[in-house]
Amino acid sequence: MSEATATVPATERPLGRPRGVWFVAIIGLLTFGIYLIYWSYKTGEEVRRYSGEGLGGVLWLVIWLVVGIVMWFVTPSEVGKLYARDGQQPPVTGKTGFWMLLPLIGYFVWVVKVQGALNRFWTSKGATA
Length: 129
Hints:
Blueprint: H1 3-7, H2 21-30, H3 34-51, H4 57-85, H5 105-124
């Protein structure tokens, strides 16, 4: 953990915003992935601001745009690290990205797992929907 987050109590770190799992999944499809570009930036930035580690929103966004397939694995890995840093068992890991290899149904499973894990983490820290 970086020095900045080590000195700031978890209760004072900026929390991410829980998002509707099905909203993310359906709007992501209806906008042909444009919402997911926005989602990746916001989520990456929230994770980095809270933990003080990770790629951050700009890098998440660039990687999604250039080699999106990599982010199928990086995103759940970074979410899992939030749990691991907190001393909890990560509900998602980089392996969660393999769900995206299944056409359509894998996309929904991936979003439910990743956004669901994020929502549970943020609400456990006091964030409200």
